[in-house]
Design brief:
Elements lengths: L8 H8 L5 H22 L6 E7 L11 E3 L5 E9 L2 E2 L5 E4 L9 E4 L17 E7 L5 E6 L11 E3 L2 H6 L5 E4 L2 E16 L13 E3 L11 E4 L2 E9 L2 E8 L12 E14 L12 E5 L3 H19 L5 E4 L5 E4 L4 H13 L9
Antiparallel strand pairs: 1-7, 2-6, 3-4, 3-7, 5-6, 8-17, 9-16, 10-11, 10-17, 11-16, 12-15, 13-14, 13-16, 14-15, 18-19
Length: 355
C-alpha cells in the first residue's frame, strides 16, 4: 500500500471469505489501489485528507472577480496559512466557500469589508500560496489507543489495543496526535493473556475462551492460539465467545495456559499525507479516517469485481433471454448502478466558466 485506499484488505477478505495468505493479500491490495484511484477519476476528486502547500497564479488566465480564487480540483478542508504576494492574509479577512455545508471548499473569497486583497507579487505566477488540509471531508473516528509508546520517529511498527485492532485494517489511514500513518501490514502480537479454564478441545462447539481481563479484547478481533486463528464474536465479562478455525486455520486442542496472540502489531508508513513523524506516548488515542459510505462500498465492490474477474480470466457471464442463448457480463447492472450512484452523490461536477 503506497497510497490511501477506500476499503481495507480485511473488508475484501471477509466479503469473499478469502483465507489470509501472502498471495491473496498482494492481489487484494493491488485491486484496492486500482479501485480507489478509479473512483478518484470517476468523481474528479480525491477523498483522502492531505496536508500540503499549493500555489496559484494571480491573476490567472481565466477572467474572475479580483476577490475570488477558484480552487478547481484542489479542494480544501481547512486553511493553516494564506499568503498573496508574500503578504499573509488573516483568517478573518477571507471566506471559504460554499459555506452552507462545510468542506469540501472549492473557492476562497476576500472579505470585501476588509482591506485585504490578492496580488501584489512581482509577477502573476504563483502569487497565492495556501498551506492547509486538502481533500473532501475530515470524518474521523477514535477507535482505540496505543498499547505501547512509539519512542522514535523511524519506527515502522506500532502496537494498538484490542479495540483499535478490531477497527483497523491494511489500508486504513490513522492519526495519532498530528501525525497520519498508512497501515501497510499487520502481524500478531502477544496480548499478555493466556487461555484459562480447562483449555479448548478440538471441537467446533468448544467456543468459550476464559481470559484474565475480557475488557482488553474486542468483538471482531482475530486471535491466534498456537496455530489456530479464532474470531471473537461476543464478550461477556472475562469470557470470549469465538468462531473456531477462522481464516482457513486448522481446528486443534489447546491446553490451559497457552499464550493468546492478536493482530495488534501494525506496520505503518510514518509521516504520511504531508504530516511529520513524531514520538507518541503509551495509551495515546488512535483515530481512523473514514471515507464516505458510498465511496467505501464502491471501492469494495470494484475490488471484488477485479479479483473475481481475474480468477475467471475476465470471462464471467450469465445467460440471458428465454432460450439462454445470449451472454451478458455479470457486473453489467449492479456495479454500473453503484458507480452512477456514487458519481451522482459524490462526483465533482464541471464548473461552467464564461469568457
Amino acid at each position: 500500500m503506497t497510497q490511501p485506499v477506500y476499503a481495507t484488505r480485511e473488508d475484501v477478505m471477509r466479503a469473499l471469505d478469502v483465507k489470509a495468505t501472502a498471495r491473496s493479500s498482494a492481489q487484494i491490495d493491488r485491486a484496492l489501489q486500482s479501485a480507489s484511484r478509479g473512483i478518484d477519476a470517476l468523481c474528479h476528486r480525491r477523498f483522502y485528507p492531505e496536508t500540503a502547500t499549493r500555489s496559484f497564479d494571480w491573476p490567472g488566465s481565466q477572467y474572475r472577480p479580483s476577490w475570488r480564487l477558484w480552487l478547481d480540483d484542489s479542494e480544501l478542508i481547512s486553511v493553516t496559512t494564506l499568503t498573496s504576494g508574500g503578504t499573509t492574509i488573516a483568517a478573518s479577512d477571507y471566506f471559504l466557500e460554499p459555506n452552507r455545508s462545510g468542506p469540501p471548499y472549492n473557492r476562497l473569497e476576500i472579505d470585501l469589508d476588509s482591506s485585504a486583497a490578492f496580488g501584489g507579487g512581482d509577477t502573476h505566477q504563483r502569487d497565492i500560496t495556501i498551506t492547509g488540509l486538502w481533500g473532501y471531508q475530515l470524518d474521523e473516528t477514535t477507535v482505540g489507543t496505543l498499547a505501547a509508546a512509539v519512542g522514535t520517529t523511524t519506527a515502522t511498527t506500532i502496537t494498538v489495543n484490542g479495540a483499535a485492532s478490531a477497527e483497523l485494517g491494511v489500508g486504513s489511514v490513522l492519526r495519532i496526535g498530528s501525525e497520519r500513518m498508512l497501515v501497510t501490514n499487520r502481524t500478531m502480537a502477544d496480548t499478555g493473556q493466556n487461555v484459562g479454564g480447562s483449555g479448548l478441545t478440538a471441537q467446533q462447539n468448544s467456543v468459550t475462551v476464559t481470559v484474565t481481563d475480557g475488557s482488553a479484547f474486542a468483538v471482531d478481533e482475530v486471535l491466534l492460539v498456537e496455530s489456530e486463528r479464532m474470531l471473537i464474536v461476543d464478550i461477556a465479562g472475562n469470557t470470549l465467545t469465538v468462531k473456531r478455525a477462522f481464516d482457513g486455520s486448522v481446528l486443534a486442542a489447546h491446553a490451559a495456559g497457552v499464550d493468546i496472540y492478536a493482530a495488534r502489531a501494525l506496520t505503518v508508513q510514518r509521516g504520511a499525507l504531508g504530516t511529520t513523524a513524531a514520538t507518541h506516548a503509551d495509551a495515546a488515542s488512535v483515530v481512523r479516517w473514514d471515507p464516505p459510505g458510498p465511496v467505501r462500498d464502491l471501492a469494495l465492490a470494484e475490488a471484488i469485481n477485479r479479483i473475481t474477474s481475474e480468477q475467471a480470466g475476465y470471462a464471467r457471464t450469465r445467460k440471458t433471454g428465454d432460450g439462454g442463448t445470449g451472454e451478458r457480463a455479470l457486473d453489467a447492472t449492479a456495479l454500473a448502478t453503484l458507480r452512477n450512484q456514487v458519481y451522482d452523490s459524490h462526483g465533482r461536477k464541471a464548473r461552467v466558466r464564461s469568457v
